[in-house]
C-alpha cells in the first residue's frame, strides 16, 4: 500500500515525537485552552464544533473520572485521511490525545479504531509501547509530577454509524451502536456516564501543532471562519488521488486543478452524507462557511451515471442505518426505492417531489447525524442533475 | 443472575442523568420556558413532553410510555426548539435552560405526518381486520394527523411468521413499529430480558435469543409487554373459540370461575369509572352466554390462605422450636409468572416457595373432584374455564 | 458440541474475562477475540459470555447481529471481503467480483465447500484512492485487478 499525499503547511509540517507533550507540561491548563481558542480550531469530523469549547466544558466538569476518545471510525465513503495519519504520523495523534488528557484532567484515552483498520493495530500498539518507554505515557509523563495518562485501543466491528460520537460511546460500553438522545451531551454524560470528549483523529493532530507553534500561527492559515488547513481525501476520476493538505477556503475548481481532474461532471463533497456539486458551482468554497466536509472529495467525470452513484449511496445508508428511529430506518428505504423507480422509468414527478419533501423531514427529524445527512445526496443530485436523470438517465451507460 | 438495580436497560434507553433539585422552589430549581408563546415555569430537568402536559398542551407520542425509561426512537413527538437546527424529541429532551418551544409549526406537523406515513408503509394488513381496531395508538395517530392515503405505499404481504408458540403471548412482528416498549418492559421493568432488537438498519426486528419461539426461551408469560404494545404486534392468545365449542357441545358441562380483579376491570370496557365492581352483572352475562355454573375464585383464595398460612406456621415451628433448617421467608406461589421467574433466575430460592397451589388451580381441582361428585357429573365431561387478570395463568 | 469443546470454550471465555474485565464494556473485545479465533460466536459461546458478564443471552445476540464483522453462523476459515462503495465500484469492482466468483465457484455471501473461503461484500474500507480494495481476514489489498485478485486467492491457505 502506498500513500500519496501532498504536504501542506500545518498538519504535515515538521514535528518531533513528544515535542508537544514536553512543551505542554510546562504550561497551565488555562494556557492550553487559551491557545486553542486563539486557533479557532473546529472539529475535523465534519460537524465543526469548536474544539476549545468542547474541552473547556469537559475540563470544567467536576467529575474525578473523565475520558478522552479519539474517533478513528473513519467510515465515510471517500475518507481515508485517518488511515494516513495513523500509519505515518501516529506521533501527532497520540501526542494530541496526551495533551487533551493534560488539559482536561483525564487519566484514560481510548482510540476507537474501525474494524476495517485492524491491520494497523499491531503497529499502533507497538508505537504506544515505545511512548511508554520514553515516558510519554504512563505515570508522571515527561517528568511532570502527578500527570498520569494512558491510551488503550478498542476496535470497532464494522458499523458506519459508530462514527457518530454517542453511538461510538454506546459501542465502547458494549452495546449496539445506537445513537443516544441528546442532551445530555458526552461532555457531561459520556463514556460510563462520565464527562468525555470525542474528537476526530485530525483534530488531535492539529492540537499537537497548535501547542508547539501557537494558536495565532494556526489561525494565519485558512479563512476567518475556517482556520487552519484541512486534509482532503481525494478519490475518483482524477490523475492523482490521495491525501492533500490544503488551506480551508480553497475553491472546488482549484482543488480539481491540483489533483489533475479532467472532464469533471460532479464533485461529491463530504462523502455519501455530503452534497453533490455540479460543474456550474465549481467556484464554491470548501470551508465551514460554504461546503463543509470531513475531508472526502469524490470526483466523477462525464462518463459517470449520476443515478448509479446515487443508488450506491442509498444502498449504503439502508445497510448502515442503525435502525432505531423511524425516519432513518424506513425513510432511506423509500429513497432507495425512488432511485430504482428513476432507473426503471416507473416514477412520477409528483412522487419524486414527495420523496424530496420526505428527505427534508428526515434531515430535521432523525435522531442522529446519519439520518439527518443521508438524504443530502438524494436531494442535491436530484436538484443539480435534473436533466440527466429525468431525460432517460435510467438508460444511460454506466 | 444478580440484581443490578435499575440498570438492566440498554444504556441508550436509560433515564437521563440530569440532577434534579429536590425542591423546585430553591434558586435554580426551576427554569422558565416559553411553550407556544406562553411563559411557564417548570422544575429543572423536566422533559419538554412533561412540561407540555403540565400546561395542558398535547404532544403526540408513540414510543414514550410513562412506566418505562426514555427511548426517543419513534420521533413522533418532535417539536421545534428555537436556535436548534433540527427538531427535538420532546420525550427525551430535559429542560435545563430557558428555551422557546413550538409544538405545532408547519415543519413539525409535516415531519410527524411523514413519520406516521413511513410507519404505515411497513405496517402490514388492514385496520378493519385487526383486533386492535379502534384501540390502536398508531391508528389514532394516523387519524389525528389525517394520514390516510399511504403516500409511501403499504404492504399486505406478511414478512414474518406469527409466533403463537407461547401459552399466553402471540407475537405478530408484521404489525411491529419498533417502538421498543416491549424490550424496555421485559429488560428494565420485569428484569426478564427475553426480547431485544436484533440486526440493524431496515432488517431490525424485535426478537428472542437465536430467534427462538417464545415457548423455547425463558419468557415468564407475564404479559406486561402486551399491556404496553401500541399496536397489534403483541397480544394475549384468545381461546374463546374453544370455549364456544365446549358450550355448544351438549355433552359438556362448562363451568367458569371469575377472579375479583377482572370483575372490576371489565367496567372500563363499558365506559364506567375504573374500580367499579360488576360482579352480579358479569355473573348474569356468563350464565346467559351458556355457562352451566359460575363460581367465585374468592372461595379458593381463602383455601390458599389456609394452606399457605398453615405451611408458614409449620415452617416457623420447625425453625424456631425444633431448630431445623427450613427455607425462610416463605414466598407465595399464587402467581405462575412469579414461580417461573424464580425457577429461571433464582433457582436457589425455590425452596422458599410455598407448596400450595394458586386459588385458580385449587378451584380447578375442586371442580373436577368435590363439585363433580356433588353435582353428579362425570369429571371428564366438565370443562373448567377461568377469567383471570394475568396472562401467566395460562401457563 | 462435545462436552470437551464446551469446556474448552468456557475456559477460553473465562480467560478473556480475566484479560478484559467483567463489565459490560468488555463485551465487544471478548466477542472480537472469539470471532477472530473461531470465525463465529457459537450459540454456546453467546450463553457463556452472557453468564460471565451477567447479562441476558439475548443482549449478546442483539449486539452480535448489529455488527457486520461479528456473526453467529459458522463461516469459512478465511473471509474475503470486497469493497462495494462508490469509488471502488467505479474503478472496476464488478469485474473483480465476477473473476472471484468464477474462480471459487460461489456467489457473494457463500462459503466454499472445503470451508476455506467465505466471500462477502463490505462497505467502504478507506482505500478509496486505490480501489478496488479487498480485505482478506484483516489484511487489506489495494488496486486489485481481476488477475491480482486470483493471485491473492491462491495465496490463501
Question: What's the architecture of the largest domain in chain B, going by CATH?
Answer: 3-Layer(aba) Sandwich
* Biggest sheet record of chain A: 6 strands, mixed
Beta-strand percentage of chain A? 5-15%
Q: What is the string of helix and strand elements of chain A?
A: EHHHEHHEHEHEHHEEHEEEHHHHHH
- Examine the secondary-structure arrangement and name the CATH architecture of the largest domain in chain A: 3-Layer(aba) Sandwich
- Radius of gyration based on Cα positions of chain A: 21 Å
Q: What's the number of structural domains of chain A?
A: 3
- Cα-based radius of gyration of chain B, to the nearest Å: 25 Å
Q: CATH homologous superfamily name of the largest domain in chain A?
A: NADH-ubiquinone oxidoreductase 51kDa subunit
Q: Helical residue percent of chain A?
A: 40-55%
Portion in strands of chain B? 5-15%
What's the rounded overall pLDDT mean of chain A?
91
Give the CA-CA distance, first to last residue of chain B: 23 Å
Shape assignment of chain B: globular
Strand order of the largest sheet of chain B: 2-1-5-3-4
The ordered H/E elements of chain B are EEHEEEHHEHEEHEHEHHEHHHE
Report on this structure.
The complex is a heterotrimer of chains A (398), B (395) and C (157). Chain A is of the alpha/beta class and 398 residues long. Chain A has helices spanning 19-24, 29-39, 51-60, 81-88, 90-104, 121-133, 165-172, 201-213, 215-219, 252-259, 306-320, 326-344, 349-365, 369-373, 375-384, 386-390; strands at 5-6, 67-72, 108-113, 150-155, 196-200, 229-236, 242-247, 264-269, 275-278, 296-301. Chain A folds into three domains: 5-219, NADH-ubiquinone oxidoreductase 51kDa subunit (Rossmann fold), CATH 3.40.50; 229-301, Ubiquitin-like (UB roll) (Roll); 306-389, NADH-ubiquinone oxidoreductase 51kDa subunit, iron-sulphur binding domain (de novo design (two linked rop proteins)). Chain A contains 16 helices and ten strands. Chain A has a six-stranded mixed β-sheet with strand order 1-7-6-10-8-9. Chain A has a four-stranded parallel β-sheet with strand order 4-3-2-5, sandwiched between helices. In chain B, strand 1 and strand 2 form a beta hairpin. Chain C is an alpha+beta fold and 157 residues long. Chain C has two domains: 3-66, Orthogonal Bundle (Arc Repressor Mutant, subunit A), CATH 1.10.10; 78-155, Glutaredoxin, CATH 3.40.30.10. In chain C, strands 2-1-3-4 form a four-stranded mixed β-sheet, with helices on one face. In chain C, strand 3 (134-136) and strand 4 (139-141) form a beta hairpin. Chain C starts with a helix and ends with a helix. The chains are: A alpha/beta (398), B alpha/beta (395), C alpha+beta (157). Chains in contact: A-B, A-C, B-C. At the A-C interface, strand 6, strand 10 and helix 11 of A face helix 2, helix 4 and helix 5 of C.
